[in-house]
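Protocol step 4 of 6: structure prediction from sequence.
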Amino acid sequence: MVKISVIFAIFLSTAFVTGGDGPPRSLLRYIKGWKFNFFMVPGKALQRSKSQHILTTNVTNCTCKTACVAVGCKAWSITPRNDGTKECRLDTDSRAGPMDTTPEDIPDSVYFFREDSIPGNYSQPEDGLLYVHLRGRNDYASGKSCCSRIPGHRLIILKTLRQRDYAMNLASQFQEKAVMMDLRKNLTTSPTSYFWGDGTQFLDTEVKQVPILGLSTSQATWRSVYVLEDSQLKERYPTTEARIICQANPFGVDW
């Protein structure tokens, strides 16, 4: 417990970090525990109205996590009170996690959720990111929403050829051919200008070596979505469904 408390103190004092000209790195942190692995998100908390248990006596990171273990909860948070003390909020719903109960923004709070509260399988390739392969298939809008509901996660963005190959390997493990990507067309620039969901221009990434196979001119639309299929990038209709893979960056690498 001492080790976890030290980690907690260090991370709580961390500010957003930027890597070069890239987007801010998330404050999300991933911690491997002796009983389960979990994520930590400063600045968020369980909604008080959705918390089945609220503890207000001798609240510390250790006592709150221990209480969670005792009742088998999937998410918990530590939130400051007006009198200077803290309260521990526990969500003991067996299905609960950030995808079921959206945490709220409260300064100086810390929100924790278990890895197994997310309906998917996590893995970590050599790029240093975490990938979670969600169950089922979805269209672009639903898939992007699912990923964004998990703090610090996003719909997959593939900037390197190794990331493309890894995503294809993940999909093949579940007998899937297509993976939805957060790639969009910028019609204000030109019909062949594309950008990733974090604003990075497609032509500024290594994966630009892979041509985008578009729909015919009569079929294309600014609402077109893009999937990775057979190691190729393909334009599809907005209603197309594909496998959803989310990325997270708890280790602060450039992404």
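Step 5 (inspection) to follow. The domain at 120-248 is CATH 3.10.100.10 (Mannose-Binding Protein A; Chain A).
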